[in-house]
Amino acid sequence: MKVWIFSLRTPSGNRPAGGAQRYALDFACSLREHGHCVRIVGAFEAGKPSREILEGIEVQRLSRYWIFPWLGLWWNLIRKAPEAHLVVENMMSFLALMPGAFTRTPAVSIKHHFGTHQRSAAGGRAFRDRALWWIEHRQIPRAYSRSRLIFPSQRTEAHFKSLCPRFRGRAAICPPAVQMAPNQASFLGSPTILYVGVVNLARKRVDHLLEASMPLLAELPDLRVEIAGEGPDRRRLQERYAHERVAFLGYVSEAEKWQALARAWVFASPSTAEGFGISWVEANSAGLPVVAYDLGLDTVAAGCGTFVPVGDVPRLREALKGWLDPNRLREMRPRAVRSAQPYARMPSEEALRSLGIDVDGSGTTNGRTATRLVVPTSDSPT
């Protein structure tokens, strides 16, 4: 089966990939392992080649700039869709290509999460944020009310259906494939709180983590805080929270990321929106507890982390402090590693079958009732 995956932004070998881009590549690799021919097609992106091969997957990009990249990708979709047996839309934030409406090729759309754009946003970006909120929370649910949709978590699916109570399409849960840590944390040396991710306060409240950590740094003389990742707010946070035991590591390679996880004691994730929480599973696979805001996800098993209400910095501080006990950490470590194991594989074919896609042929199955996809949860035995 030929599968074309359309994504506004695409993974690349010379730049770090975001979660949605990584998901698209893992989805493609999973299908290729089952013998399918898969290609990722994207818009023009400055600094990225028009064609490259990543992990055996061909990635094609528009060779010229479009004022509105969305239109360029949409035009590419119309032209290339007839070549494929299946079209997959990798939705990026509010982007809506609506492949099912513009091509006769069977189509599936992946919705990762819903953004945190607020209707009451203030400042220079207020109008833009309100517009994005309206598109994502009002127009997309209506436009996709009869579509085949893949969600990385049950929470994202439930959120979508709450916005679209008259949903008449088909839905499947397909958790991302998560690479397991090569080494587990030893909890030796200086206690370290680690954050890994983009430094962008729009969705990753790294400032909350630093604010919660400052009293702990004063209380515990050997405590360290490491911030791994780049983003538009890194410089401002580095100046505001300057401290000799707060290290901004900048962009880290995969090898450096695993090294940071191996020396850390606690993984902190002050995100206000997540579709699944890949970094949480990575941290658990290294034996680390996850301290994060409660986003309603079931990615982390009970006893392998602590979740506090979004924006509650004092409780975030207490949760971090509670895990800085090496005996508690060593007792928790094997349980965290076990809970991460079910996510080592992406059930892409199962998800497509539950949506009525004939993965063994080139069409869709008959009938309107789809079999519900059941995937392992973090509490499932291994």
Any key phrases for this structure?
382 residues, Rossmann fold, 2 domains, 12 helices, 14 strands, disordered C terminus
What does this entry look like structurally?
This protein has two domains: 2-177 and 345-354, 3-Layer(aba) Sandwich (Rossmann fold); 192-342, Glycogen Phosphorylase B (Rossmann fold), CATH 3.40.50. The chain starts with a strand and ends in a 28-residue tail after the last helix. The protein contains twelve helices and 14 strands. With 382 residues, the chain is an alpha/beta fold. It has helices at residues 19-33, 69-80, 99-102, 126-143, 154-163, 206-219, 234-240, 254-263, 278-285, 313-322, 326-340, 348-354, and strands at 2-7, 37-42, 51-54, 57-61, 86-90, 107-110, 148-151, 170-173, 192-196, 224-228, 246-250, 266-269, 290-293, 305-308. α4 (126-143) links the parallel β6 (107-110) and β7 (148-151). The strands form two sheets. It has an eight-stranded mixed β-sheet with strand order 3-4-2-1-5-6-7-8, with helices on both faces. It has a six-stranded parallel β-sheet with strand order 11-10-9-12-13-14, with helices on both faces.
Helix content: 25-40%
Separation of the first and last Cα atoms:
32 Å
CATH architecture of the largest domain, please? 3-Layer(aba) Sandwich
Q: Give average pLDDT, whole number.
A: 86
The biggest beta sheet, please? 8 strands, mixed
State the total count of DSSP E strands: 14
